[in-house]
Amino acid sequence: MSFYSPLPEPIPLKEQSWPEGTRPLLCTSTFCFQHETYVRQCIESILMQRTTFPVRVCIHDDASTDKTAEVIRSYQEAYPGKIWAFFQPENTFLHPDRIQLQREYRAWIEAGRYIAMCEGDDYWMDPLKLQKQVELLETHPGINLCVHDVEVSHEGIPLTREQFYNVPFDGDFRFTYEDYFSNHFFHTASKVFRVPADLEFYHEVIGRVRAGDLVSNHLFLASGDGYYIAEKMAFKRRNQGGYTKSALYQDSGKRRLDWYNVWKEIERFAPKRMKQNVWHMLADIERQFVKSMFQKRRFGSALCCQPGHGN
């Protein structure tokens, strides 16, 4: 693959034409499942992005049974060479080997220097979003992750709090691992991050938990800083089809075990200065597990089946 010469000014991805074999500076990644209603708006919001650099638009359909794949194929045919679509033959969300099953798709999105995420039921609002984030990352090598504010829509879900994300500072700011440790204050659709140098380890840690997004954020911030742009450049939907509204997530016991496994993964690479905090988090989850078992009068389970003790 060849490298590129930047365009004199940002133009929409739809209008860009790069020599064959040009290596993308950034790859977008959109995971879809049953997103027929939303995916068209998502794809259009990606194609409207104005950049001075080449972008590969990657879309993964996780064996949807509605018309999601049909919509994606129509865009793939309309923009050949620009949209790279992968149609998973079997759903991988809960599959223990999902990273392996997604290996071809992941090779596509990891071909550049940066990855930008936008799930199929969300979309980007600012046509210069990618340009702004990449310019910041290009000029600040110590920053691994650039995020921003989002507009949140609660579709068919009661609003449980006035502000969905508790942003720790005002305006634009640089943040550290400590700032993020106990406050997940940004959404997936806002993320642009550097492709990890050790992809084998990256795949390993995100493949062993369901909340791979959370683990990956910790991994990025363990070796560099993040930067938050206080502009609403994406639209996040919270709806009944989301994971947090699923029966799996609503099962508090399984959710607590998932949370424990997440922190066990984070323990492997957390900065030494934060190890004690991770251990406290793990101990607190264990206490919650024991308490819930005693409340249910499952004393034997509480004593012998704590997370990390044979369960």
Uncertain ranges = 242-246
* Secondary-structure class: alpha/beta
Number-wise, the strands total 11
- What is the terminal-to-terminal distance? 48 Å
Number of helical segments with 4 or more residues: 12
Q: How would you characterize this protein structure?
A:
The chain has 311 residues and is α/β, with parallel strands linked by helices. It has 2 domains: 11-245, Spore Coat Polysaccharide Biosynthesis Protein SpsA, Chain A (Alpha-Beta Complex); 251-304. Helix content is 37%, strand content 20%. Strands 2, 4, 5, 6, 7, 8, 9, 10 and 11 form a 9-stranded mixed sheet that branches. A two-stranded antiparallel ribbon has the order 1-3. β4, α2 (68-78) and β5 (83-87) form a beta-alpha-beta unit. α7 (199-207) packs antiparallel against α8 (212-222). The longest helix is centred in the C-terminal third of the chain and has 21 residues, at 275-295. Mean pLDDT is 90; it is low at 242-246.
